[in-house]
Amino acid sequence: MAAVKGPGAAQKHDGSGLRIAIVHARWNETIIEALIGGAKNAMLASGVKEENIVVESVPGSYELPLAVQRVYAASQIQSTASTVAGGMGNLASGIGDLLGGSNSTTDLQGSLQPGPPEADKKEDKSLKHAFDAVIAIGVLIKGETMHFEYIADAVSHGLMKVQLDSQIPVIFGLLTVLNLGQGLARAGLDGGSGKEATGHNHGEDWGNAAVELGVKKKGWSQGKIAAS
């Protein structure tokens, strides 16, 4: 019998044209690393290229909303800079054609075009457009004080606000567990406890969600809904 709980079978989407960020906290590092691995594996399986998965870290989960917001803003700056650089290259090429390949002292084509690549420098094939989705990953384990409740509530609301304000899919990868065993179970690690002790890595679900929402967001921006 299929499990009632969970998102069901992941939809199949082509993620080859997506650029996705993972922003994660470093608290509870063992669980965090497993969740990141699960998310990356799911995205790679959907065609997202390794070079188009960008990972950024912050100290704790409380810092996630700001970090997600600023990382996405930084990707928008990169996108603009890449567009401008491409335009300058086209301009330089056009000037070169107008000058007939002139070798004059003031070589406009040479001054505007970037120099030849360094021999030992690998070509950067990564996409430069703004991120199509961001996965926020953190792990909160309840302790003896109210700290857990305050942080969980603040981060949840903060990530939702960033998502709505930025109009970018922000995948909620915040585990809020009552003990270490529950966290290990949800990261697919040994030592898990509770009803999910068999260990399903929730990072895989988040990776699939990022690809699905990234693809659908592109469609929505073009006026496409579902199969229309």
Using the 3D structure, state the CATH architecture of the domain at 38-81 and 127-219.
3-Layer(aba) Sandwich
Shape: globular
CATH class annotation of the domain at 38-81 and 127-219: Alpha Beta
Q: What is the averaged pLDDT score?
A: 85
> Distance between termini?
33 Å
Biggest sheet strand line-up: 2-1-3-4
Give the topology string: H per helix, E per strand: EHEHHEHEHH
Roughly what fraction of the amino acids lie in strands? 5-15%
The parts where pLDDT drops under 50 for at least 5 residues are 102-112
CATH superfamily of the domain at 38-81 and 127-219: Lumazine/riboflavin synthase
Query: Biggest sheet: strands, sense, closure?
Result: 4 strands, parallel
Strand element count: 4
Helix content: 40-55%
Structure description:
The protein is an alpha/beta fold and 228 residues long. The chain has a domain at 38-81 and 127-219: 3-Layer(aba) Sandwich (Rossmann fold). The chain contains six helices and four strands. A four-stranded parallel β-sheet has the order 2-1-3-4, sandwiched between helices. The radius of gyration is 22 Å and the shape is globular. The two termini are 33 Å apart. Mean pLDDT is 85; it is low at 102-112.
